[in-house]
Amino acid sequence: MSTALWLLGRGTGLVSLLLLTTTVVLGVLTGGGYRSRELPRFALTEIHRRASLAAAVLLVVHIGSLWLDPEAQLRAVDVVVPFLSRQPLWWGLGTLALDLVGVVIVTSLLRKHIRYAVWRGLHWLGYAVWPVAFLHGLGSGSDAGTWWLRSVAVACFAAVAVAAGWRVSRLEEPAAPPRPRAPSTPVG
């Protein structure tokens, strides 16, 4: 049973990182006004939401499986309070990422009940989650030094870097002049 929990913890952690990367990339792109020829903006936003939800669900499974695994020795306090575990840096980063994800999820669920500016400011914590979770994934677990995990990490880093670079380049572009409206023709 412990091997199954260990494999489940590893797999869900990795897929959570991939989904979190997808979420961040789509958040950066849609927030920067990216337009896809194949997908309308609402579809990209919906993929962003669903990837976020899937990442959160897998994160719960990741933590739950490691908590139940007797070899991982994860305590309840390790899940909530960062940097108290037996691997304070790497596990602490994971706990910090979880705490930040919690803030983003709770404020997103309360979005209709809080001011937009407050929600948006707290939602920006999502950008802080990614590097913290990324570093947690690089340093935690038995796969930390493997070539394949490093390859996945490089691909995730590249995706976020390209999206961030695109977004920054958009900030430097001069605003396009407004398009002239076509004259209206009288009906009748």
Describe this structure in words.
The protein is mostly helical and 188 residues long. The chain has one domain. The chain has helices at residues 2-31, 41-68, 76-80, 88-109, 116-123, 125-139, 147-172.
Order of helical and strand elements: HHHHHHH
Largest sheet at a glance? none
Helical amount = over 70%
Rg is 20 Å
Strand content: under 5%
Count of DSSP E strands? 0
Average predicted confidence as pLDDT:
88
Shape: globular
Low-confidence stretches: none
Topology:
Blueprint: H1 2-31, H2 41-68, H3 76-80, H4 88-109, H5 116-123, H6 125-139, H7 147-172
Helix pairs in contact: 1-2, 1-6, 1-7, 4-6
Descriptive labels:
globular; Sulfoxide reductase heme-binding subunit YedZ; 188 residues; membrane; mainly alpha; Fe3_Rdtase_TM_dom
Brief summary:
With 188 residues, the protein is an all-alpha fold. 71% of the residues lie in helices and 0% in strands.
